[in-house]
Amino acid sequence: MKDYDYEIVIGLEVHVELKTESKIFCGCSNRFGAEPNTNVCPVCSGFPGMLPVLNQEVVEYAIRAGLALNCEIASYSKFDRKNYFYPDLPKAYQISQYDLPICGKGYMDIYVNGEPKRIGIIRAHMEEDAGKLMHQGSITQTAFSLVDLNRSGVPLLEIVSQPDMRSAAEAREYLEKLRSTMLFAGVSDCKMQEGSLRCDANVSVRSWGEQELGIRTEIKNLNSFRALEKAIEYEARRQMDALDDGEVIVQETRTWDEEKQITRSMRNKEEAHDYRYFPEPDLPPLIIGREWVESIARSMPELPQQAQVRLMENYGLPPYDVSILTASPQYLAFFDSCVAEYPQPKAVANWMMGELNKFLNQSNMEIAECKILPGHLSGLLKLVDAGSISGKMAKDIFAEMFASGKEAEQIIREKGLVQISDQDTLTAMIEEVLKANPKVVEDYRGGKQKAAGFLVGQVMKATKGQANPALVNQLIDKCLSAE
Amino acid sequence: MQLCDLTVHQLKNLLQGRESSAEEILKSCLERIKESEPEVCAFITLLEDDALQAARNIDEQGQYQVLSGIPYGLKDIFCTCGVKTTCGSRILENFVPNYDATAARRLVEAGAVLLGKLNMDEFAMGSSTEQSAFFPTRNPWDYNRVPGGSSGGSAAAVSAGEIPFSLGTDTGGSIRQPASYCGVVGLKPTYGRVSRWGVIAYASSLDQVGVFTRDVADCALVLRVIAGKDPLDSTSVALEVPDYSVGLQADINGLKIAYPREYFQKGVDPAVKACVIEALKTYESLGAIIEEVSLPHSEYALPAYYLVATAEASANLARYDGVRYGLRDFSADNVADMISQSRALGFGADVKRRIMLGTYALSSGYYDAYYLKALKVRRLLKNDFDKVFENFDVIVAPAAPTTAFELGTQTGDPLTLYMNDILTVPINMAGLPGMSIPCGFAHQMPVGMQLIGKPFDEPTMLKAAYGFEQATSFHLAKPGRGVK
Predict the structure, then answer these.
(1) E strands in A227-332
(2) CA-nearest residue of chain B to A81?
């Protein structure tokens, strides 16, 4: 389906912070959020005479991530120096990987309009992060900047995709799946707001049927999934308009301006950087044994892709549902536990995607922090099935469960919320309502079917919503037709 | 002879026999320093009070470790906690590290007494110590002449009797050449034998920490203290450190010595050559087997070195940007200017020259032709040595093409100064151990004989050196403390 005159081509470069105990080349803590310049040492601050020592856990996490992305794991890999000057880069070079990355070709399967699509991955490599600069206001106006080196030396995995995506929605789907895959693999917290997941987008357009790629631009400063989508859409449109006007696209880096919702050129008068890559002489090359890789592979937990297939095949859930249910390992575990006790996966899925997510989002909470346990939800749903409470009542009770952590039965007891399903009780109430509303009854008898609805409403009101609505409907019909 | 002129072993004997105290030894060194430093200028920083306190503590404790009470100096390239470390440069003029280089720490743990930090060519780039940002050091044998470089202060201080041993570094000959010029023993171990942690980096794949002493036995002793795997240095090797003092006296009858014809060709002063050839005859008389060999790729060593070393240096020296430590030009009003102006002010001319050369060699379009090609030449150089070592135990050659030249005579042409490295640079490129020992005089100045060993075969190299030394008395000569 062609929405536009051009085909949009997108590739994503994603940086994932690996959540190892310490930094990649020194023993400093890798924890986020400390006071500035407290998780630092002479090594990660680039002091004279300092040398890097590779943290093995970083390599293990990189291999795990690579296996989760179906990548080839290199038998021989090495580090290289990437040279440039910037105040947040203490050695004035970044230790990265240039031509022999730890992970080679791989792929990730995503669902586009319910159909599976395979996005290729070119490579993934390890590198160290730089520090942070803090300005007073904008970088161009500040009188001075402060350098915080806590983040300097934090281990990163840079994952480069093939330019296989064809829409902003696909790009978002890829990033979300990549995020959850990294969460399941246990290598990163993937919090975009904390910077442990960062994404740059490479966008180009070309005429339909054209094989060659158009000139691409790189978009930076994408701080949310929404920004990713908006920026791609904007940039694609900008390029298409430019081409329509007969302009040539400039290959450049652009920044996403969240305020103005546009991309802006970051070009300055300097030439593009020549990073003068050369092999890092302070670190010996890595020889990666196949046994080690195999043992890591054996210890891999179920990944989102496998879980999604399992949920679709075993439970018949649609791709949209399974994508949400596999957003994080904790979320999936909640679902699996709940279904184990209450084997109605679609109902559980609906409640999680609906009510549960509503409250989680409102409170800006992760499911692990939520007071509701899988057993609580299954308990609630069983009560609905048994007819003890209505669907509407269940929602109110659920809200209370979320706030208090109490189980459904306790709340029902405390608030006396049991659904009234006793025929005699209901009939008595109905007769009262009919007596109190003779005109409505007349209207109904006169042919106005909808009048019955009003009467049902009155019964529900009188019972504070606790009457079993289906039964009330049934009994009112009976009462009205009996006379 | 005064205490300050004795060897480490002689001092140890006196200490153990309670005939001298650490304080007496130190005071003797301090007196000599007072006498000769006005001319020699080997020290950048003298730690008189700290050293006295350390010596007194050792006398009090009475416990004698391997180097207890022995004064020493460190080339100002070794970071010392709480003590200014300049690397011979204005850009680190006031830099005080809060950590000790591993090699320095091991000496302290062995009880040695740090007397001070020694002068050097800026960032270890140079062959005469005239490129120190502060002042030149003078050769104790002739104050009009250079001590060599870049570890000129380390060699001169030992030669002048100021300290019995010192540490230096050798990237292209910076221990062996000054040892030759100053008539002392200077040893550069196999690459990876001694930790580089805390040693300010010049060229990462070439730098090695080494020792200056008055004789070979002292050299073996000190080497053992500083050598060994350091978890903080990934390029240090986890091979056991042998007791280098054991086996020194072994008979060298039958030792197979090769001398490469390329090292005895044009460019070497005939008088220097004559000394070394005489030394080879001495070896023959001791029963060694001497044969000429060829190291065919020798002529490519120097250009390859200047590509590898400068390329690595251009990256290693990029951290001196005025942001976290060192000289900063506060008059700049933006970051880019601050960085470039701080470096313009802080670096000397030769350092800038090498950074630019190295940057060029790595730049886009030139990497393959220069840096990558140089790495391949490096492999060929190593192969040459490996081939010779299949049939020989040790290689002998001059340590420098000339004796010490006069100050100011070679500062004009950078290329001439570079030529001082040709005999020593291939050994760094191949990562082999090399040392220089006194083997005679030419033009009334010391001449050093270079020995080169197989990787991690310092024992054989030391044995060969010891055998020659004990059969001669060149190592006993001392400068007359004045102009010849």
Answers:
(1) 253-257, 262-265, 278-279, 286-287
(2) B315
